[in-house]
Amino acid sequence: MRLAPPSIDDGRHLWALARDCGLDVNSPYAYTLWCRDFAATSVVARGPSGEVHGFVTGYVRPDSRDTYFLWQVGVHAAARGRGLARRMLDHIGDRITGDGLAFLEATVTPDNAASRALFASFARDRGAPLEWTPLFETRHFPQGPAEHAPEELVRIGPLAA
């Protein structure tokens, strides 16, 4: 897999992958805009033919300029179990620490064992503290056919450059 920043043309692929992975899906427009405006803080994993097998989207928090917020991680079903999510996270970690950022944050539902393990291994291997705190409660989300689970904030850092 080749890791690189996304291009505008990747927006539709990120949308489809998010849908297929069962992530909270945003509009195709949002993913396309993301690939334009936040390409420098995101990554896509491409197979030999250029197809998108995974992505990480994130941004530098405007009110906390030393903190990267990881918004979504998606890995195609055929590429799971091969360490691709961790490889993309390491890629982002190297990029943000190289830019002088000290913290990585994300939100995770309490039942998402895979994401919790991913962030725990990242923090451990980087020798960085990891802290979990409640952030969004069910009441913060609109009620629909399925109630949205709460989201806890994971904060990792400070990260060494």
TrEMBL record:
PROSITE patterns: GNAT. Its EC number is 2.3.1.178. SUPFAM superfamilies: Acyl-CoA N-acyltransferases (Nat). Residues 1-156 form the N-acetyltransferase domain. InterPro entries: Acyl_CoA_acyltransferase, Ectoine_EctA, GNAT_dom. CDD domains: NAT_SF. Pfam families: Acetyltransf_1. Keywords: Acyltransferase, Transferase. Pathway: Amine and polyamine biosynthesis; ectoine biosynthesis; L-ectoine from L-aspartate 4-semialdehyde: step 2/3. It is an enzyme of class 2 (transferase). One of its GO terms (molecular function) is diaminobutyrate acetyltransferase activity. The keyword Transferase applies. Signal peptide: none annotated. The keyword Signal does not apply. Belongs to the acetyltransferase family. EctA subfamily. This is L-2,4-diaminobutyric acid acetyltransferase. The lineage of its organism: Bacteria, Bacillati, Actinomycetota, Actinomycetes, Streptosporangiales. The gene is ectA.
